Amino acid sequence: MKAICFFLAEGFEEVEALLPLDILRRGGLDVRTVSVTGDRIVKGAHQVPVVADLLFEDLAADEVEMIVLPGGMPGAVNLDAHAGLDALVRSAAAAGQPMAAICAAPLVYGKRGLLNGKKATCYPGFESYLEGADCTGRMVETDGNFVTGKGPGAAAEFGFTLLQRLAGADKAAEVKQGMLWAE
Q1: pTM across the whole model
Q2: What's the rounded Cα separation, in Å, for the pair 4 and 99?
Q3: Quick one: which of 66, 113, 125, 181 is 20 to 30 A from 101 by CA?
């Protein structure tokens, strides 16, 4: 069964992982957290431990519907350095699968040339890693199969954008209303 997979590395930005994940689960989507650390407990950038649903080693590539990468430091750098995730990202991009990243994490796609010619956004100061991208500075940017977010303050908009893309505008509006989210 395919799932939207949030990949967690030591030092990930908690709000960028947990708020979008919560939004997608409220929308009824199958979302899993995947640790790339070898341990199911992954500590975020602010020392919040999160128990991942599974380890990267236990994930089959054909189970991944969408790759989502939360930012944070050193979380984004740790994701970038993971060889298995590198292979999965390259394979998913070649297959045209939907992919998302927020804050510093778009560097994972950018350093591989996957954002070349696409509009993208990231945390200020990380634009140089988004090789060939048109860095817009917007809170959330969607171009082709990629969704990128600017940083922690964009976490909700990022989550709702993903939900709208995967489940439709009506579902996103329903979840916003249920969460009492003001426009």
Answers
A1: 0.96
A2: 9
A3: 181
